[in-house]
Write a structure and sequence with these properties.
Helix content: 40-55%
Structural class: alpha/beta
Number of strands: 7
Shape: globular
Oligomer: single chain
CATH class: Alpha Beta
Strand content: 5-15%
CATH superfamily: P-loop containing nucleotide triphosphate hydrolases
Distance between the termini: 35 Å
Bound molecules: adenosine-5'-diphosphate, magnesium ion
CATH topology: Rossmann fold
Order of helices and strands: HEHEHHEEHHEHEHEHHHH
Strand order of the largest sheet: 3-4-2-5-1-6-7
Amino acid sequence: MAGAKSGARRATKKPVRSGALVVAVANQKGGVAKTTSVASLGAAFAEAGKRVLLIDLDAQACLTFSLGVDPDAVETSINEVLLGKVDAVDAVISCADGVDLIPSVIELAGAEAQLLPRPGREYVLRTALEPILPDYDVVLLDCSPSLGVLTLNALTAAQGLVIPMPCEMLSHRGVGQLLDTVADVQRILNKDLEVLGVLPTMFDGRSNHAQAVLADVGERYGLPVLLPPIPKTVRFAEAPAVGRSILATSRTSKGAAAYREVAAGLLDRL
Ligand code: ADP
Ligand code: MG
């Protein structure tokens, strides 16, 4: 009897996906520090000893470039993975920051149209990643500035979502729309998706306005705010040119320290 009881309890338990925790970094606005956050959090997780895979889901390939990989010289990218031409493992590149990368190429712009008529088009990334999840602890998805099929694929493949948002007036416009999309995804495609929080970026602590925006953001949307805020510093603009994240180019800067703290907080929660 007791055995049957505990068996029933086991059966109702939520299935745990094996391997890496997949986190999408998304906001359909451009220039909010999605790519910078993926590169920096990825480097911070790697510093903490985690096996990290970063995936560039933007045809502009900024993450690929920032990690020292020339998108024009990439032979196998996320594009071929999504179109089912290669296995994900065959598109992985090891980068100097101690992270692995599945790069993007400009041709990814056409993938959206090619995926559209396919059945189960929102599940393509999730399915493609399954075989390599056991090889990693964390997978971060750098989304493009849109809520199109590629971003829906990211939200379907992820257990967590981080929403970078600059601490400036009007920067939160569009977050409502993003959260509506998240609710649809949770209802239809991926009930396990959890919004881990808003990540305040480009924070100018001297500005009262930035302080006010930061105070308002969490309350307005009922979302956790990932702290500390990432300070605004020119160091972030310099790092991609040498193909490393700010954690390597400016190890002791406030920006690097802030991303390390946010990464540690996320690891605690996850
Ligand atoms: P997204 O991926 O959302 O389009 P990016 O990460 O490419 O945004 O960042 C947009 C620009 O802002 C880049 O030039 C980047 O170097 C810069 N940037 C990002 N974070 C900061 C920061 N904390 N302080 C100053 N500049 C930043
Ligand atoms: Mg970007």
